[in-house]
Amino acid sequence: MRLLIAFLLPWFTFFTIGRPLAGIVCLILQITVIGWIPATIWAVYALSQYQTDQKIRRAFRA
Questions:
Q1: Sequence spans of domains, the chain
Q2: How many other C-beta atoms are found inside a 10 Å radius of the C-beta of residue 49?
Q3: Which of 37, 48, 50, 62 could cysteine-pair with 17, CB 3.0–4.6 Å?
Q4: In this structure, how many other beta carbons lie within 10 angstroms of the beta carbon of residue 10?
């Protein structure tokens, strides 16, 4: 679900993973039509990093 959000509303992805400052910067970037593609790429990358961090945390808890 977050991946779909990353494609449609890249700035909102950062708020769902707990990075509101990055979300505001991404929103400013997304306001321009040309900035939409870099904002989407950045959101997808940040989401993949977040998921990797979550897996690492779960591995150390077990």
A1: 2-54
A2: 11
A3: 50
A4: 26
User: What type of residue is 54?
Assistant: Q
Mean pLDDT of 12-23: 94
Q: Note the Cα 10 to chain centre separation in Å.
A: 6
Here the tokens at position 19 are 């990075």
Q: Which of 51, 54, 46, 35 is nearest to 12 (CA)?
A: 46
Model confidence, pTM: 0.84
CA distance 34 to 21: 21
The secondary structure of residue 62, as a DSSP letter, is -
Rg (CA), the chain: 12
